[in-house]
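Box S1 | Example of a co-folding query
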Amino acid sequence: MYQYTEFDRTFVRSRAAQFRDQIERWQSGKLSEDDFRPLRLQNGWYVQRHAPMLRVAVPYGELSSAQLRVLARVAREYDEPEAEVYRLASEAQRKLGTIRLPTHYAHFTTRTNVQFNWIPLAKAADVMDLLASVDMHGIQTSGNCIRNISCDERAGVAPDEVADPRPFAEIMRQWTTLHPEFAFLPRKFKIAITGAAEDRAATDWHDVGLHLLRNDAGELGFRVSAGGGMGRTPILGTVLREFLPWRHIMNYIEAVVRVYNQYGRRDNKYKARIKILVKAEGQRYIDDVEAEFRQIVEHDGGPHTIPQAELDRVSASFLSPQFARRAAHANSSGLDTLNAKAARHPLFERWLHRNVAQHKNPSMRIVTLSFKRLLQAPGDASADQLDLVAELADRFSAGEARVTHTQNLVLPWVHADDLFALWEAASNAGLASANVHLLTDMIACPGGDFCALANARSIPVAQAITERYQDLDELNDIGEIDLHISGCINSCGHHHSGHIGILGVDKDGKEWYQVTLGGSDGSATSGPAQPGKVIGPSFSAPEVPEVIEAVLSTYLAIRQEIGTRQEHFIETVRRVGLDPFKAAANDVRTNGERAA
Ligand code: HEM
Ligand code: SF4
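Box S1 (continued) | Returned holo structure for protoporphyrin IX containing FE
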């Protein structure tokens, strides 16, 4: 894992001290509400529906066990509202039909950050000090700046990887942090980066998507795309450069962001994301970026060109842990034992198949701990679970875990010999559901239970579907499928890229849900990234699980065999189009109205 230098540490700690001072001045009335607001936002402190919300950055999703333990401590000791706040929140929730709002937990997001929903602002300074003690902070997790750079969760360990993207992500993190030119962009700006053949970081859906590859001459570089994003207008990124030598990545991104900074629609916040500029200007935007890039490199001397020595220095922090380097060959007797255990324990076998992926080191595996389970919102982790993951990371994964874009945690350094022991420990903690990539492994935003911008709640819908689909045999029969839920058109739950997308909409002050089909985030089983299409007018909350059931029954009835396997849901949707699914879904509504 990357180790912060003394410079980074001093910076993060002094930032926490500065924030303590700002809070104290606000509390004593020396800073007005208006003056304090941007300062708290710049440190990741929002104010949401019921209480403040803290967003903590997790650069490229990597967490050490020490950081996990501090997150657990924050959840346990601080994620609790004042009594009056909780009373008012519970009262508001009762009207919506949700009785209990969970406290004492952390929430992992699709951009691999972590959020807390209840910490009182009066305790914010103590929390920031605690986070700073393990090099964590909330800088650039809010506002119109370059946000946390997200990555493939298998970076550096994936067998299908051309090069490790983390050193580049770290160099760019250092460069973009508090960069004055990028502090007040027209709108928020999100970069994702992968170095693998499969896109596990949804790069096409980002403001800038970076894909490491080699050209015909074997040189390393990036395919650079820009202008991807969701919201009201889902747009995929446009490729600006098929190949950019890696040394120039920051010079080029400077050009991309500078042109956006100059021409982005500051007059209208709904049109201010870079996607609108790239779509409106097309080739003209690309030409401007290229001209700016030439200016930066030829006239200004390429001030951000990455020297080989700097890449080597940062890469050295990402070397495999010692024990992983020692065992760089497959151990066939170990694999025999594993197979024997799998034969005796069908649940273990299922977990091996679903939650365990190949590693670039043949004697190691990448293991996903599932945070998708009954009675827990997707991506939520309790204080105890966080402590347990820290323990598992220490015992089995060189003290390291990663946050995934799909709101799970991954252990990247697990010896194949340890898989059974890990499975037993994870099962005892309820983190071994063998549902990775299946229907219940869904993405959801906090929705109306917590978010002030929501049109409808996401979590109860996620729960109702999870409750309906508890049978692992049935889930496996349905096969790989991405279900994504957002509580409003801001699309934090990525509903546009779900094979099935669910979007909360407001009609006459009531919660309704639009369903889309055929979206893709660009991962291997999903095929090329694309937005889903709406299958008709919206449904009420109780109808949603029935609609999902109707859509899936239709799929099961019409799917075909491809070789030795069944067609995936997304493949069937692409083959037959929306009509059969629309008909089945609309039947649910008709029946619902008759019943009412
Ligand atoms: C509850 C507090 C939150 C608030 C107030 C909030 C607000 C917003 C807003 C206003 C946007 C749209 C920006 C725009 O397009 O101009 C947005 C985008 C986004 N949010 Fe959130 N968000 C919250 C939590 C989350 C969470 C928990 C996640 C992850 C599960 C998340 C992930 C995202 C992502 C990925 C986008 C970009 C979507 C795109 O590509 O356009 N947000 N958020
Ligand atoms: S999609 Fe809407 S409801 Fe969900 S977190 Fe984002 S802003 Fe809130």
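The radius of gyration is 24 Å. The first strand starts at residue 45 and ends at 47.
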